[in-house]
Specification:
The structure is a homodimer.
Chain A (H helix, E strand, L loop, with lengths): L5 H4 L1 H29 L9 H4 L1 H23 L5 H33 L7 H25 L5 H37 L9 H25 L12 H11 L8
Main location (chains A, B): membrane
Subcellular location (chains A, B): Cytoplasmic vesicle, Secretory vesicle, Chromaffin granule membrane
InterPro entries (chains A, B): CYB561/CYBRD1-like, Cyt_b561/ferric_Rdtase_TM
Chain lengths: ~250, ~250
């Protein structure tokens, strides 16, 4: 998108946006933990509804907070070597993936025990779509950018798609969380939700904080001035490739 | 974001993405119409639940389809005068605003008749936030870009925020629709939704089509190559301003 004057987009503001994203992200994880721990009876792994409670916590921690932070590393560690930042990006996404798998197993396992049908709701459709695309994106990212399995041409084709779908999947993940919040409230407190029960207000606030986290991460990632400057290690290939094919200077994620 | 080779982002592909967005957008409006018209008893303006049915149709038509098309005009009408495209952008957003207001009045009026509390759900919080920010954004856009009420500096500060929040609000609007779909299904067919009732599957498909519409519009708007080239009428001011302040070539929305 556009360049933006320093009051909103200058480099000094980056640290404030990143700090804000971390405050919101941690608040989301803590509120989800309190909601499931305090209002919904706590956690277990025994097929009971307390096993279900592991699901929201894992998804908010894995597919929102860690996923968002994995995206932000390219803006936060601007001067570290590109390879180190790539490895950190891949590790954070791997943690996100593992924690998401635990969260998904938790809910399928609970459904099996409680004889509740799977995959009928819009929440489950959006969630499964997000998870499958995220897993594919992680595999492709690993093969294309960390290991030398793809040509420079293929990398240059895939990089902008990786960046776009990376952000799109975070947004879809947050949207899926909001659907999950609504489902859970209508299943659990349908009688008191409309009377502004504390649990309902807390969960609604969680929804708005998730939206806020997504907006800040998206803003930081799409601002031109926050983009990582090309490092010497990556210039030799990308400069030559871009100059040969398009005659324009290289871009970095 | 990044430049992208021609197979996914070349100018010829723009028409296919725009065509795809229109197919998905119209499908969303038609499916919402069929859902409310066929499965939920049709439309009325008498305080009954049939008045509620006006709400989803207006919001999908106004705050998703027309809103998305208002964003796309800068990419579709690349060679028309900037002022004409701005006016079309403002008119489409005004239609979007008016239809949204009808949709919001429909649901508040129905709630008043049926003695249902307002503004307790996450859907209503997200929806009201989206609508208020959209209204503010429309007023600011009108004052800053259509009428000469703002200095060149103020315009250049606000333009990237207008573009970012324009897209962010479309995403939030689609997220709010998904929440509305989930709420409506759990209120109306909670007994058969988990048995894959046709109405539930149709509404879930509507949710995925809304997500698809949002992804295509966001992709078209964020691709560098699809960006409108600077027109002669806007160059004199913007080139000089950008050169003076940043030493970089001008950007266009």
């Amino acid at each position: 998108m556009e360049n933006i004057p320093s009051c909103w987009g200058g480099m000094r503001s980056l640290q404030w946006f990143v700090a804000g994203s971390q405050v919101l992200g941690i608040a989301c994880v803590v509120i989800t933990g309190v909601w499931m721990g305090h209002y919904r009876g706590g956690y277990a792994w025994d097929g009971s509804v307390n096993q279900f409670n592991v699901h929201p916590l894992c998804m908010v921690l894995g597919l929102v907070f860690l996923y968002g932070d994995a995206i932000l590393v390219y803006r936060v560690f601007r001067n570290e070597s590109k390879r180190s930042v790539k490895i950190l990006h891949a590790i954070l996404h791997m943690m996100s993936l593992i924690i998401s798998i635990v969260g998904i197993v938790a809910v399928f396992d609970f459904h099996a025990s409680a004889k509740i049908p799977d995959m009928y709701s819009l929440h489950s459709w959006c969630g499964m779509l997000t998870f499958v695309l995220f897993f594919l994106q992680w595999l492709l990212g690993l093969g294309f950018f960390l290991f030398p399995w793809a040509s420079a041409w293929l990398r240059s084709v895939y990089l902008p798609l990786h960046v776009f779908f990376g952000l799109a999947l975070m947004v879809l993940s947050i949207g899926t969380c909001l659907l999950g919040i609504t489902e859970k409230l209508l299943f659990s407190i349908s009688q008191t939700y409309s009377k502004f029960a504390a649990e309902g207000v807390l969960a609604n606030v969680l929804g708005l904080l998730l939206v806020g986290f997504g907006i800040i991460v998206a803003y930081v990632v799409t601002r031109e001035e926050f983009r990582r400057p090309p490092s010497p290690e990556e210039e030799p290939i990308s400069v030559h490739f871009k100059t040969l094919t398009e005659g324009t200077p290289p871009v970095t994620p």
